[in-house]
Amino acid sequence: MALVLPFEPNEPSIEALVALVKADMERVNATILARTGSDVAMIPEVANHLISSGGKRLRPMLTLACASLSGYRGDGHVKLAASVEFMHTATLLHDDVVDESDMRRGKLAARKLWGNEASVLVGDFLLGQAFKMMVEVGSMTCLDILATAACVIAEGEVMQLAAAKNTATSEDDYLAVIRGKTAELFAAACEVGAVLGQRPKAEQAACRSYGMNLGIAFQLVDDALDYGGSQAKLGKNVGDDFREGKITLPVLLAFRRGDASERAFWQRCLEKGEGNDADLDQAIGLMTRHRAIADTVERARHYGAIAKDALALFPNGQAKDALMEAVDFCLSRAH
Amino acid sequence: MALVLPFEPNEPSIEALVALVKADMERVNATILARTGSDVAMIPEVANHLISSGGKRLRPMLTLACASLSGYRGDGHVKLAASVEFMHTATLLHDDVVDESDMRRGKLAARKLWGNEASVLVGDFLLGQAFKMMVEVGSMTCLDILATAACVIAEGEVMQLAAAKNTATSEDDYLAVIRGKTAELFAAACEVGAVLGQRPKAEQAACRSYGMNLGIAFQLVDDALDYGGSQAKLGKNVGDDFREGKITLPVLLAFRRGDASERAFWQRCLEKGEGNDADLDQAIGLMTRHRAIADTVERARHYGAIAKDALALFPNGQAKDALMEAVDFCLSRAH
Question: What is the dihedral of CA B85, B87, B90, B94, to 10 degrees?
């Protein structure tokens, strides 16, 4: 009689990506630390509050991994990866002011500790440092890609402002927002890795497409988790988006699929911002009934699949495997 | 018997500078208009509210004039001048959020009309566009100068936050603040003009020094005017700095030169922010008694003189004359 061993499927993990870029990532971290330095003491204080708060540093890892995938042998990827992380951190600092957030990654938001002023200005400083590092790397193409990303990110955020409180936002409009505010930096982070490696245009575009679609999937899973994750997993509370009246895909789907009284509920809670904790329970109930969270994850899977197919041009190997698994990992966060 | 004609001394004017760069400036204005365009309607609305509000566009004029002084014959100065104005506009938008200002250039501040969110994000967009234009010009040296300026400006503003409400700030510390928040962009605006003209290092440094010292003089005169100008001249009210509790050189001088009871007055009004309109009258009285406003202008003259000597390396001509007169014009605003 055979012994039945407990079957444990291999959970997708980010560990292959972490291992791939480990040595480079240590240099990126040292660069980040060095480049937040300033004689003006408040700058490293505010910057490091957020930078050292345990973000995954997924974006700089993508730059390093795409440089590795592209066979790049120089040093520029380290500074570009740090630039990408600085651009991301600047966005978070500015977002907290825009959203009037109290928490970020499970800690008090910088603006609660040092004020809106410091968040705006330290964000500006980091953006300046990001461009200084790009200049040091010296690739005009990479500068172009990341400067364009800076514009597109801001456009995406402004679009989100304009769409805010509108529960009838179309899914396409919502996608345009998250392409800008989230996916564009993923796309740029990946593309510059391939540009450094001087890969043919088609492969640069493939890395960009991988990043763009991974970024969309990442944001959609994040949106889903906000109605079903635990605080520990997210560093924010379930229902934060709901309480802030943010219109995300789970809301859009539940609104569209609901009847008139349900739509009135969503409008009261989100457009008028009157939702309380009992309303949050009802919101999650409605989303579950209409499969709004599950289908948001389903949409994310679609973009994840595009991301993986984008990399098909590249030969198999450690870098490609790690990037492929990173997609599955991002999707698996939704479980 | 001789007829006595009313004697009118030639007031220094900005007109020579305006005339020198007129044709180029039209292209800069067209570029500015084109580059604030976005499918996201709120971006041009917010940007143009401020951009079309009748700033003098001194900084882009300086870039054009220094390019002319340096014999530059290309097209890059137009986009760099527009970049400089975008960086300035982004700073103003972010400053309004930081200062919680209600007015800017005699109009309601953008943040009062569209909210802090829009001011932060449209500022970020303009900064991104500025870097995109620099990339299009393609001079890595100019990119380096302007990226460094972006960092130094943010550092200066953060320094100002840290010095805020401290009436015992030293004059040196105050100078460090205005070098960063104001003079650095003047310096960079001038330097990139000379870099485009591929002038020898000494002449690039001369243009930078001209801009830096002009910028300091400009800010000091602005500080003086806040206690003695008219609203029409400034687009802001006399006493704005006082009401916002801003520590500027006229305050620092009056504080240092005053007795204990006067120092208590300054601390009550500025550190505790309790100053009212009667206090403003007293503040101006104390400044007058201690020559604090006049000596602020005197300090400005010192930096103005350095700015003019910096240009001595260049041959006489229309561009040099216009830049020299611009210094006198900035100083003459104080009358």
Answer: -130
